[in-house]
Amino acid sequence: QVQLVETGGGLVQPGVSLRLSCAASGSIFSIYSMAWYRQAPGKQREFVATITSGASTNYADSVKGRFTITRDNAKNTVNLQMNNLKPEDTAVYYCNADIRTTITRRSDYWGQGTQVTVSS
Q1: What pLDDT, on a 0 to 100 scale, did the predictor assign at position 119?
Q2: How far is CA 29 from CA 1, 25, 55, 101, in A?
Q3: Inter-residue long-range contacts of 60-64, CB under 8 Å, 24+ positions, other chains counted
Q4: pLDDT digits over 13-64, tens only?
Q5: Residues 6+ apart with CB under 8 A from 114
Q6: Phi-psi region of 34 (alpha: psi -120 to 50; beta: other; left: phi over 0)
Q7: Residue 116 in contact with residue 93, Cβ under 8 Å?
Q8: Residue 103 reports pLDDT greater than 90
Q9: With 0-12 CB in 10 A as exposed, 13-18 as middle and 19+ as buried, what is 61?
Q10: Which residues does residue 26 pair with via DSSP β-bridges, in sequence order?
């Protein structure tokens, strides 16, 4: 069994920073890519950022230059540093990880989500 637990959401004013963290635990053999997605009210879940096990990153155009994704392979964690937050960043943020749990089993896992609200 694998669990992803996100922390760090909250209510902030526009222009400030927030850091999200996600920790993977359980029966983990290895973790490939880790990513963040978000879902705003009434909208579909959208990609935010991803990082490979080798630390290659990719970002959605809407967050490039403001968000930074990092990971700690030894701790099975992934972080999302969000700077200069805007009201349109308001959403539930989900952690995602591509995890191998046995030699023959590899699956996609999701966290429960953490709310980020940007409002003055």
Answers
A1: 97
A2: 11, 11, 18, 5
A3: 62/88, 63/89
A4: 999 999 999 999 999 999 999 999 999 999 999 999 999 999 999 999 999 9
A5: 6, 7, 8, 9, 20, 92, 93
A6: beta
A7: yes
A8: no
A9: exposed
A10: 2
Residues 22/3, Cβ–Cβ less than 8 Å: no
Cα 17-99-96 angle, rounded to 5 deg: 30
> Tokens for 31?
């973790």
pLDDT given at position 52: 97
Give the Å distances, CA to CA, from 37 to 74, 105, 115. Answer: 23, 23, 12
For 87, phi then psi, to 5°, come to -55, -35
The DSSP bridge pattern shows strands 2-7 and 106-110 to be unpaired
Q: What pLDDT, on the 0 to 100 scale, is given for residue 7?
A: 96
